[in-house]
Every structure is written in C-alpha cells, then in structure tokens.
C-alpha cells in the first residue's frame, strides 16, 4: 500500500518538475522576446511603477533602464497630461481589459516630444487581480507628420488646380453652347 502511494507521489513530483521546467522555459522565451523586440516594452506594477524596460525603450526615451525602473510611468508623460493619464490608468486597472491605439505625447530625456502609439495589457491572476501591466509602444511621430504633409499637399494641389480648371470648363461650356460660333 505504501509502495503504491510512493509511486504515485514520485509520478506527481516528476510531473510537477516537468511543469516547473516548462514554466521557466516560457518565462525565458517571454523575457527574450521583450528584450529583443523592436518596440518599447515596459512592465509596470498595478500602481504604475516601472519594474522592467527593454533596450528599445531605453533608446526611444533616452533613459537608461536603471533611471526608469522603480519610478512611475508618468515620467514618460508630459505633466499637463498627468490627469488624463491617471483616468486611463484607473480605467485599465478597474476594467482589466487591454487598450490599444492609445496615442500619447511622450517626452524624451533630451526634451523632444514623441507621439507614441501604445498597447497596454493588464496581466490578471486567477483571483481576477491585476498583478502587472505590459505596455508596448512605438514612435509614430514621423508617420503622423507624413500624414499631415500628405493632407496639406492634397489640399494645396486641389486649390491650385481648381482655378485653371474653372477657366477651361467655362471656355468649353461657351464653345459647346455655340456662343462663339461653330
């Protein structure tokens, strides 16, 4: 009877050890993915404290990881937008749902503003408590500027073409109506 219990216990211990190895391997893969990702990845506590940043985030914002880790995420938000940030953060932690496409004006260390598009995902445990938040951001400043310039160019082109086309259309209407003869 003890032998069967010992065998079952040994089998369960082996299964637990295998599960532990798989969890560790998954953790290493995720850590490697975050570190090598070409976009900024930040891990945050539910209160907004930064716990991890990847190399892309260091490059994007101009801060070393040690300067961001332990500080609040608001360091990466202009002070005039802290109120809006607090509201979005509270909503994220309360609803426990991901937010995507958030465009936030982020200051770099050198004072230059970037507009970053963020996807923010709360990590929730089995008790439905937020245990961490993963924020992934990319600089869309150049993209938005290109879109603005494209709209401006299209508007200018449309305006510049309207005047000569109006004259041409008027002349063609006169010709078609027979006012100037055959």
Provide a descriptive summary of the structure in words.
This protein has 5 helices and 5 strands. The protein has 182 residues and is α+β, with helices and mostly antiparallel strands. It has helices at residues 2-36, 55-61, 65-68, 82-95, 141-177, and strands at residues 40-44, 50-53, 99-107, 113-124, 130-139. The model has no long low-confidence stretch (mean pLDDT 92). Helix content is 53%, strand content 22%. The chain has a 5-stranded antiparallel β-sheet with strand order 2-1-5-4-3. β3 (99-107) and β4 (113-124) form a beta hairpin.
What are its keywords?
182 residues; alpha+beta; five-stranded antiparallel β-sheet; 5 helices; 53% helix; elongated
Which helices and strands, and how do they pair?
Elements: H1 2-36, E1 40-44, E2 50-53, H2 55-61, H3 65-68, H4 82-95, E3 99-107, E4 113-124, E5 130-139, H5 141-177
Antiparallel strand pairs: 1-2, 1-5, 3-4, 4-5
The structural class is alpha+beta
Q: What would the average pLDDT be, to the nearest integer?
A: 92
Shape: elongated
Q: In this structure, how is the largest beta sheet organized?
A: 5 strands, antiparallel
Residues in β-strands, percent: 15-25%
Distance between the termini: 116 Å
DSSP, total strands: 5
What portion of residues is helical?
A: 40-55%
Which radius of gyration do the C-alpha atoms yield?
29 Å
H/E series = HEEHHHEEEH
The strand line-up of the biggest sheet is: 2-1-5-4-3
Low-confidence stretches: none
Number of helices: 5
Short summary:
The protein has 182 residues and is an alpha+beta fold. It is built from five helices and five strands. 53% of the residues lie in helices and 22% in strands.
């Amino acid at each position: 009877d003890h032998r069967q219990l010992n065998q079952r216990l040994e089998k369960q211990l082996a299964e637990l050890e295998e599960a532990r190895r798989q969890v560790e391997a998954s953790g290493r893969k995720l850590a490697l993915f975050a570190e090598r990702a070409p976009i900024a990845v930040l891990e945050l506590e539910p209160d907004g404290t930064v716990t991890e940043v990847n190399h892309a985030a260091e490059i994007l914002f101009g801060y070393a990881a040690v300067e961001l880790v332990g500080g609040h995420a608001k360091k990466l938000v202009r002070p005039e937008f802290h109120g809006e940030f607090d509201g979005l953060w509270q909503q994220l932690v309360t609803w426990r749902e991901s937010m995507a496409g958030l465009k936030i004006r982020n200051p770099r260390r050198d004072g230059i503003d970037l507009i970053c598009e963020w996807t923010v995902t709360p990590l929730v445990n089995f008790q439905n408590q937020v245990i961490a938040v993963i924020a992934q951001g990319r600089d869309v400043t150049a993209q938005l500027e290109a879109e603005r310039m494209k709209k401006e160019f299209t508007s200018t082109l449309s305006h510049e073409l309207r005047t000569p086309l109006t004259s041409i259309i008027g002349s063609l209407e006169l010709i078609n109506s027979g006012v100037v003869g055959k």
